[in-house]
């Protein structure tokens, strides 16, 4: 008796998952993103206005979020 979940499991074993950023380069990508977030946050702090919010604030928060996750994974802390 075959279940659909087992069939999906068997089909997925032929094509393993390949991450977009390899394990070897996660530290570099995380460091670049965190440095970029630090610079953008500093510039946004000096020039706070409603105009610079989408230009500097949103990219800074995204860079910090993804950079933090990449650095956590790169140094081996699993949450």
UniProtKB/TrEMBL annotation:
Record field: transmembrane: 27-46, 53-78
Membrane topology: Multi-pass membrane protein
GO cellular component: oligosaccharyltransferase complex
Keywords: Membrane, Transmembrane, Transmembrane helix
Main localization, broad class: membrane
Cited InterPro entries: TMEM258/Ost5 (IPR007915)
GO biological process: protein N-linked glycosylation
Record localization: Membrane
Superkingdom of origin organism: Eukaryota
Pfam family, one: Ost5
Functional summary from the UniProt entry: Subunit of the oligosaccharyl transferase (OST) complex that catalyzes the initial transfer of a defined glycan (Glc(3)Man(9)GlcNAc(2) in eukaryotes) from the lipid carrier dolichol-pyrophosphate to an asparagine residue within an Asn-X-Ser/Thr consensus motif in nascent polypeptide chains, the first step in protein N-glycosylation. N-glycosylation occurs cotranslationally and the complex associates with the Sec61 complex at the channel-forming translocon complex that mediates protein translocation across the endoplasmic reticulum (ER). All subunits are required for a maximal enzyme activity.
Assembly information from the UniProt record: Component of the oligosaccharyltransferase (OST) complex.
Family: Belongs to the OST5 family.
Protein name: Dolichyl-diphosphooligosaccharide-protein glycosyltransferase subunit OST5
